[in-house]
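Incident log, structure service

09:12 report received: a user says their structure output differs between two submissions of the same chain.
09:20 pulled the input from the user's history:
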Amino acid sequence: MNRVRGLDLDATDAAIVRELQKDGRLAFETLAGRVGLSRAATRLRVRRLLETDAIRVVGVAHPAARDIGALAHLSIDATGRAAPVAAAIAALPRVTTVSLVAGPFPLVAEVCAADPPALSRGIAEVRAIPGVRDVNAIFATEVVKDPYHGPPHPPGIELDKIDTQLLELLERDGRTSFADMAGAVGLSPGAVRGRVLRLMEAAVVRVTALVHPVALGLGRLGGFALRLERGGGEALTEIASWRRISHLTRGLGRADGVGIVTAESLPDLHSTFERLRAVSGVRITETWVHTDLVKERYEIPVGTR
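09:34 re-ran on a clean worker, output below:
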């Protein structure tokens, strides 16, 4: 069994997580029937999982719906201690993730924006942070694998102000009740339910359980950058299918791709890096180990895109 903040996760917890990954808004009664518990026991288990950060049930909006059209991975050098620099970078609204790492650079981060000019402004904001010595960017051209990204094709419906408000509520808590959302946007629960179902059916948003790596026994996080050689495109598809690869992006810059590895231990992380080095069509140019996840947030506040 795995442990997240003192919580033992058994087979029933795993079954609950699997069901919530398929549909994060699944009713407790339905969920209880699928995992073989009473409604009250199921509700208690879900609450415990959420309180210990084993899972987060959130709405994952399609990037186009959130006006995200450009993103970049940043490797950041710092003068002096890296932790205060990481905290300052994490406060920037366009920055969605920041980690302290052991590797060629002491910090890595991700910046998202509406378009390349806004992305450039976001990177400039990082460069302007006191203590930042250098910023090296890999500009994403294709998200090959990422739990926070939706289908590759943009949704075919227009969103109004209320739709956007509902997306923001779901991004904060995917299991927010229709009644609570109705109170926030000024509509009836029935009208909100219709809008949310419409958004989900159009692939504007999916509500799912995002599982903490520790809950899966994957307590170590690492990253890698690669160059593509002949046949590298097919190699990326193969790498993306691996269980331990949680993120993979094709890009432009000092590397043709960047990815994240989750593993049980440092030796397992090393084994995955070695497996990557053996893949035909790619050349691993850098690896690093995450020592502290400072920020992880994937929605962009309105007015900062």
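09:41 both user submissions now match this output. Likely a transient worker issue. Closing.
09:42 reviewer note: Confidence is low (pLDDT under 50) at residues 1-6, 298-305. The chain is about 35% helix and 30% strand.
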